[in-house]
Amino acid sequence: MELAVLFGICLLISGIAIRAAVTLANYFGVVDHPGGHKQHEASTPFVGGVGILAVLLGLFLVLDPLFVGFSVSTLQAMLIGALVLFLTGLADDIVHLSFKLRFFVQAAVALSMILVGGVELLSFGALFPGWRFDLGWLSIPLTIFATVGLINAVNMIDGIDGLSGAVSLVSLALVGQVAFFAGQGAYAALVVALIAGLAGFLYYNLRYPGNSRARVFLGDNGSMVLGFVFAWLFIALSQGDSPAMTPVTALWLFALPLMDTVGVMLRRIWLRKSPFRPDRYHLHHLFVRAGYRVCDVVAFAALGQLFLGLVGVGGLALGVPEYAMFWLFLVVFAAYFLVILRPWRLVPGLRRINRALGLPSVQVGGIFAGYVAKQELPELLDLLGERLRASGYDYQLSVYQTDGSASDGRNLYCVVHVPVSGDERLIGKIQRDASAIRKLLTGRFDVGVRLFLRRQSENDLRAGSGSTMGRRHERRSARRSTLIYSVERGGGAIKGGGLGFEISEISVPPA
């Protein structure tokens, strides 16, 4: 009951704090502007860290009886470290600090965590049968390295709306479960409070019906604080005389951000680039390139982290040897790295999975219907018009003829081009219209109906105009099809005579 009340209070604190921060950020112009490698289209406040920091402040100032397992110095070290990282991250969000300065501040905070908070990475556990990997004099430098790594891992996965928050929420839920069943009541309460703080942030950041885009970004201020808290939790709960989990379990509880960060940096080094140079080859970027909606990418990432985390929790509960879980993690990471190493192969595969699952694709550009003979075209256009007139969106219906004569004379097809412009609700409506048209034509025509996808040159060999294969594909496409008729609907009115035209209006070149 106490944890439920704690969750409700912290959720309220986070929501109110972020709402107030949004007002101040808009007033002072402290917002993230579109441009560069960023894909958002509107200026957005990056004040997500305010909710998490407000929760920590509220806990330590008002609800400290729940944290009887913590010493005063421990609470102070956590709060001061979070505050320093929040201010550093906020400054980076506004004026873009150098990565060397950020690393210095992060390392200093990690050192204070060790010296003041007493949280230190003393052992990696039994990574080999019969051999425990204790760190000895390497303890302090490796604790600093691990903390800085976790802070930046959260930052690097913060690439699309809701992703870092959703994945972190899953990880925190699993950490809280481990702490609770291990009898670490103070840490369980802390995790519940952090989950509430993240939930308040996700209300503004996640995409859902009624919230088509993020109203708030986590920003470096939020990702640094969140990564620091993760480092604290993982190290504190996996070390000492009676740890709640093994160090290897922590790898599984943070598997997706960790594998994504390390994998991308290794890929950059493989290509002889700086590992700190930003690019768009994170796993979530590749999903977006394959046509997945942002909400679908977030759902897959959260489910993926949940699965990997449950593997770690299951191994802990069943008493699987640490070395077995460690080497299994390395195998999973190696497989992951090999997959992302060749994005030009991964993206088409992800696109096929998207189609197999029947999910809407952001690459949807309309509806394809074909092939039919000349005498069947008027009826097909009438049926298409019947459905499209009730669609409510603008479109251009084009009729094409393929070069050469098919053996059965079916060499005409239609494409309904729709200006989607990233509107996910419109994409869903087009998909429903395609299904309705398919049902409408069943039994009347032997014609295929599918979504028409826009090809993108990046990571698509067939559409890459810069590649030999892309140029050949473009030349073949130009030869195969000829536009013979086009009609548009814009602003609620049909241009070009409507859809009820006679076939004589269409000039079909001789085959």
Outline: elongated
Total beta strand runs: 8
Characterize the main sheet. 6 strands, antiparallel
Question: Percent of residues in beta strands?
Answer: 5-15%
**Helix fraction by DSSP (H/I, runs of at least 4):** 55-70%
Beginning-to-end CA distance, first to last residue: 78 Å
* Poorly predicted ranges: 461-479, 491-511
Average pLDDT confidence is 84
Tell me the series of helices and strands, N- to C-terminal.
HEEHHHHHHHHHHHHHEHEEHEHEE
- Using the CA coordinates, give the radius of gyration: 28 Å
Total domains, how many? 2
What structural class do the secondary elements suggest? alpha+beta
Spatial strand order of the main sheet? 6-3-5-4-7-8
Describe how the helices and strands are arranged.
Layout: H1 2-28, E1 31-32, E2 44-45, H2 48-62, H3 72-95, H4 99-115, H5 139-157, H6 163-181, H7 185-205, H8 219-238, H9 247-253, H10 255-270, H11 283-289, H12 294-318, H13 322-340, H14 343-357, E3 364-372, H15 377-388, E4 395-402, E5 412-417, H16 424-441, E6 448-453, H17 468-480, E7 481-490, E8 493-495
Antiparallel strand pairs: 1-2, 3-5, 3-6, 4-5, 4-7, 7-8
Helix pairs in contact: 1-2, 1-7, 2-3, 2-7, 2-8, 3-4, 3-8, 4-5, 5-8, 5-10, 6-7, 6-8, 6-12, 9-12, 9-13, 10-13, 15-16
What is shown here, in short?
With 511 residues, this protein is an alpha+beta fold. Helix content is 58%, strand content 9%.
